[in-house]
Each structure stands twice: as C-alpha cells, then as structure tokens.
C-alpha cells in the first residue's frame, strides 16, 4: 500500500500556493497563521448551506407586537434559514497529512452537533450528483458517516470540531496519483463529503501552467 | 401581497457568528461590567454568490479598526447591551429605533454619508447577555425612515444587467477596481469611470438633467428578485439629497456576483418617487427584524452547548462513550447510565477504582460512605488520593474521594459521608446508641435515594447492613471482595416488593443443560455462608486484618464490578435478568445474552492462572441478610431489629434457623469453589 504524506514545510508551502490560486480566482480561502510553530497555520473557508435539520419552527418566546409599524415595502423573509459551515484545513503532525475540520452554526450562533452534521451530509448525499465535484463515492448511510466523521479537538484552537478521520488520508492521496498541489488534491477528495466543492477552475490553474 | 407597483425590499437577516457571543461576554465581564453604554460595532455583507439577504457579524465587530473580510462590505452599527432582562424588556423600542433613525438622518443632513457611504449600511442591536445561563437575547434593527413608497416602472420586474446594452462595459470596469465599491454611480455614456457618491452628489445641481444616464449602484446582498433593504436607505438618501430627482424615473443597480464572479445577474430597478422626501420630528422609522416565528420580537439563543465550560467538559467526556454507541453498540442507552445514582460503601482501593470506572462510563452521581482517613500508604493503590492528602493528616476518604470525582468531572454530583457501618456482632455501647440510630437513618435514606449500591468495604460484617437494605429497597447491589491474588465480583439477587413473593417475576427458562436462575432468585454475598458474620476482626493481628493483595486484583475486580452493573443496566429486566450455570462443566449451548453479552451472577477469578469462572447460585432461604424472614423482620421492627443483630450475630442465626441447619452438616451447603478461598481485604 503506497501512501503520500507531507512534512510541515511542504504543507505550508502548498497551502500558501493554494490560497494564492483562490485569490486569483476571487474565491475566499484564507490562510490563518497563529505563529511560526509547526502545525499552527491552517486554511479557512466559509460557506452557507440550506438548513435541512431544524424541523421545529422556533423558540423565540418574547414578543413585542407594539413595535410593528405597518410597512408595505418589506417583502416577507424566506422561511428557509441558512447554516454556515466553517472549514479548516489543518496539518496533522502525527499523520503528516492535511485534516479537514469543520463546524456548522445557525444564524443565531448556536452550533450543530455531530449527529446533526451527519444528517445534513447524509441527506445531501442523495442529490449530490449535480455538483461539480470530482468523482468520489457519495456517502449515504449512517454507518458511512460514522466511519468518516468524528469529533476531534482542533489542534490549534483546542476546541471540539467535527473532523474527517485522517487515518486513510495518506492512502487516498497516493491513490489520487501525482499531484502538483496536495492540498488541492486533498480538498477535492474530502470536500465533497461535506458539501465543499472546489470549482473546476482550480484544476485548470495547474493544467494550464 | 401589496400593490404590485410598489417596490418591495428583501429585509436584511442577521447572521451571528458564535464568536460574537464569546467576544460580547468577554467584553461584558472584563471591560464594561456594569456599564450599559452603547458601543459602536460593525457587521458585514457580501454580494458575491450571496445567499438570502444576510448581514453577518462576528468577534471582529468590536474592533475599532474593523476590516470586513475579503469579498465583504462593512456595515456600521451600535450595540445596546442591557444589564438585566428587565432592562432589556423595559427598553422603549420605538424610542430606540427613533433615536437610531435620527442618527442616520443626521448623517444624511450633514453629508457624512458622502465621505463614508458605509454609514448607509446601518444597523443596531439591542441585547441582553445572561452570562450565568449562556442565554443571549437579541434584537437586530436596520433603521430606515418611513419614506413615501417608490413606484416601479415597467410593472414589477427588474431588468437583468445582461439585458442592458449600455452597461456592457461595467463588468470589465469593475474588474479593474481593487476595492469593490459599496455605493457608487455609473453613467451609461462614460465607459471608463465609476463615480463615488461624493463625486457627483457633493454639488447636486446637474443631477436631475442627467438622470437618464445615471445608475445608482450598490452592492446588493439579496439573492431575490427584490433589492436588499440597503437600497431602501440608499434611495431615501438619494431622493432627500437630490430633490430634483423626485418625479423622474431613476435607475438603481443592485450589483450581484455569481459563483463564477460574473456580475451579469445584477438587477436594475427603474423607479419613480412621486412625493418629496423630507425628514422632521414626526418622521417614523422602521426596521426591527422579526424573530424566527416571523413575529415582532427579540430572538434568544442558548450558547450553553458551546460556551458553558461544564457542558464542554461533559461533551468531551461523553465523546468516547458516544463513539462507542455510534460505531459499535447503537442501542447502548447512555442516558440510563448517566441517570443511575451509585452509592459506594467503602472508599479504599476498590472504592477509588470503582469510582474511576463509573466516571469513565459516564455515571455522574457518585456517593461515598467511609469512615477512614487517607494514610501515607493509601495513594499508591487508592487512585483518588495523593500524598498531600496523607500529609494533611485529617483528610477523610469519603470527602476527599467526592472532591476528586468532581475535579475529574465537574458535572458529576458527588458527596462523601464519613460514617461507620454498624455490623452484626459489634455491640453498640449505650453512649453510641443515639449516634448509631442517626447513622442508620442516614444510611437507610442514602440507600433509598440511590439506584445501585456497591459493597466495597474491608470486612464481611460491614456488608451485612448494606446487603439487607439493598434487598429491602430493591436496589441493584454489586459486591466485590479481594483475596491475595483472587477476587469475587457478584450481583445480589433482586429484592422484591413488600407484598410480592420472592422471584415471582419471570419464569426461568433453561437452555439445554444451562440452568437458569431468575434475577430475583439469585443469592447474595451471605447466601453462600452458613454462619452469621461474627466479629471477624476480633482476635486478629493487624497483618491478618489487612489482607495483602496483588495490586492488580483491586483494579480487575473494580472494573468487573462496574462492567457488571453496566451490563445489567442495559438489560430490559435490569437486576431481574436471569443468570445461567452449567451443572456439569462446559455447556454446548449458547448462553442468552444482554446488549453487552452474558450477565453472570458472579465472577470468581484468580491471577495465579489468570482464569475466571462464572458461577450462579440460588438464593438461600435461610440467608441471614436477604431471606424473607430477615427482610420481613426489618420491615416490621426497623432499627430495633438491627440493634438486636448488632448485639449478637447469634440472633440472626436463631431467627433464620440457620443454627439448627449448621448443626446438621455444614458441608452440604458448602459450594464447590473451595479452591477460591475468598477473603476480604482491609483497604490498606
Ligand atoms: Zn442472601
């Protein structure tokens, strides 16, 4: 079984390069550097997705009907609230590969737990065929989700995040073949599990150059 | 819907990053404290691949030198964070909106918006942060003067930028801009310039004549057909600033980028303002954001799950258990475990190790009962104590153990009771009678308040009272005892209610040559004995009292004790779950299992050959601790009965008739485990 790993310098160099591409494509990946220590820099990306898990309407108990001025010019707000996913591509010193951490929160700042995350991505698996992602088997069962997603402490922030198991990453990177930027390969491989789909333009940046 | 010719706006929707609440709490605790003075804050919005119509904010909102994230535009706001929920509720929201609205109109009047157009992207937040419960009440508002409505030309459909030939140059013109403009003006006849508001409006004289060529552009965070609320404020300003535009058709361009960074989906609304826009004292304002019930009112979010240190610890602690449930045992009932209250008699090696294992399994309610102090030799084996506890000289084990449990898991509920367990044959002097009575009542209520009882003391006699009480009050009783290199862990037979016959619940069903004993008919620690527990500590040297054990024995037995309880708790019959034994060695039949495998009556093992056997034995009808006679007598007489037993163990023997029985032949009821000489250990 062949594997592909990166040392920290390679990770940092390829992450920086990836961020530059993102900037060129007007995408919004940022590279956060806590300090110069090994492992203390990571890529961040945010996006909004439709909230498919909160069925119950809501719990806002206070009401103030006094403050409703009749106003014909406000369109009704949509009932579909959004969730924000914050993805971090962090370096794992022990596995020597990138690890995808993420967390999901609602518009009030409350966080989704891992079970809810599973439900989101499991449901998402059913209609993921229309995305522009690279071809990976789309997870569909709870067992699939269990085997790829877990809760881990974020190595830089020390807070619990949801993560995709790093244990098979080196192997998958090897299977993906030669790569000019392993961060890009990694995100293309893992991202589609969690609705993180890079635009095809990223790949073109390399085929052109 | 309302009049189709009236332009409607997509209201801004607040989207709060959790870090906003973290920062707000931090500032409240460390800087503002009791001050509830308004604070300037910031938010941001985007028109790049925008979803819904959002105004977002995060921890950076409080930065004086706020910079919007890449591809976002800043919005300017004020935070009114109240000190109490009463202040929050009592706050006059109409007045607050009016106050903020006037500030906005002031910025119109003084032309501050020309120098700093982001002042048009305006919001404020009324909030109350309950830092003890991590509940945040908040209400966003996007103030705007209630101006005369804008009429839409050409029915109600906006035009797409791609359908406007005279603006085809805009895409490349915007690309050349490093800083994307938030509010700007373009002219159809000038293909190379993007004007700031100040460029054209500072002297607004000629604006009306050019109105056909002008497009009032703004970064539009709306994904809908309607322009975002920002345009409403923008238009109010434009028609206020340029009264000559009133009565003319005016074009607003909502600039929107798609996921490919193209702006041809931008929309143009051609509108008509028929009445002049003026502001005075009586100008009403609108803009409170409806809550998630779509009613006028504040929102509330509980951030406990991600902010309360106790919850964070708990979720971290529970993670391993949840992983076990998720990956291996989906039916595992972790709530049952978390809700089971455990009472530990004895806080020595066994007590400490049992507590450790209970914590690891997610038990949260642990009560210790012990009367010893931590001595120098203890910390090496008694895993809840340290050398410092021994140096302190007066650290009581029960209290120290409870303290440690809470240090290990701050969400645990743990108390320690320093108390001697009265024992049969250990006569109580008259001076101690009252104290003993009180202790007995305490022990009785402790047993009643808990669900599972562990017998982990250092003598056989001290297990008698807890055995009797556990049976009387139908608690799960787990017993562990140690020899030098051997151990016994067992569950006591389930007690039966006052009015029911023993073990009448489930009919035991044998499986082939596996004999089944219903959980109610299983024996207790004393059922296998023929003698009442006399004073086994009497006439012994210290060495004999402190049975020496191999260090691992306690850990093994403690682990088995806790695992046995967990297995029982996951069985639908709990302590009524049957146990099986094979009369002639190894059975060919498969023993029925609970969720976590077989549930033996007892586990007897030794380190000399690293083997366990799992004997199951019947309840002994003349048992001096669990027989019906004893339980009935205790129920009838209460403490008075106990005192008679403490006076002399012979009383119990006579009561159960065991003395006659013993005279017959003790060998008959001796069990076939004489190779496993069990003794109890002093807790070193
Ligand atoms: Zn018994």
From TrEMBL, chain A:
InterPro entries found in the cross-reference section: Atg3/Atg10
Keyword Transferase carried by entry: yes
Keyword Transferase found: yes
Residues in coiled coil: none
Taxonomic superkingdom: Eukaryota
Keywords assigned by UniProt, alphabetized: Autophagy, Transferase, Ubl conjugation pathway
Family under the similarity heading: Belongs to the ATG10 family.
PANTHER family tied to this protein: UBIQUITIN-LIKE-CONJUGATING ENZYME ATG10
Name of the protein described by the UniProt record: Ubiquitin-like-conjugating enzyme ATG10
Protein source organism: Bactrocera dorsalis
Gene: LOC105229129
Automatic annotation (TrEMBL), chain B:
SUPFAM superfamilies to which the protein is assigned, alphabetical: Activating enzymes of the ubiquitin-like proteins
Active site positions, chain numbering: 546
Alphabetized InterPro entries for the sequence: Atg7, Atg7_N, Atg7_N_1, Atg7_N_2, ThiF/MoeB/HesA, ThiF_NAD_FAD-bd, Ubiquitin-activating_enz
Residue ranges occupied by any Ubiquitin-like modifier-activating enzyme Atg7 N-terminal domain in the UniProt entry: 7-307
Ranges where the THIF-type NAD/FAD binding fold domain occurs: 323-586
Keywords, ordered alphabetically: Autophagy, Cytoplasm, Protein transport, Transport, Ubl conjugation pathway
Keyword set includes Ribosomal protein: no
Highest taxon, organism lineage: Eukaryota
Pfam families reported for this sequence: ATG7_N, ThiF
Subcellular location: Cytoplasm; Preautophagosomal structure
UniProt keyword Cell division present: no
Protein family per UniProt: Belongs to the ATG7 family.
Function: E1-like activating enzyme involved in the 2 ubiquitin-like systems required for autophagy.
Subunit-structure text: Homodimer.
Protein name: Ubiquitin-like modifier-activating enzyme ATG7
Organism: Bactrocera dorsalis (Oriental fruit fly)
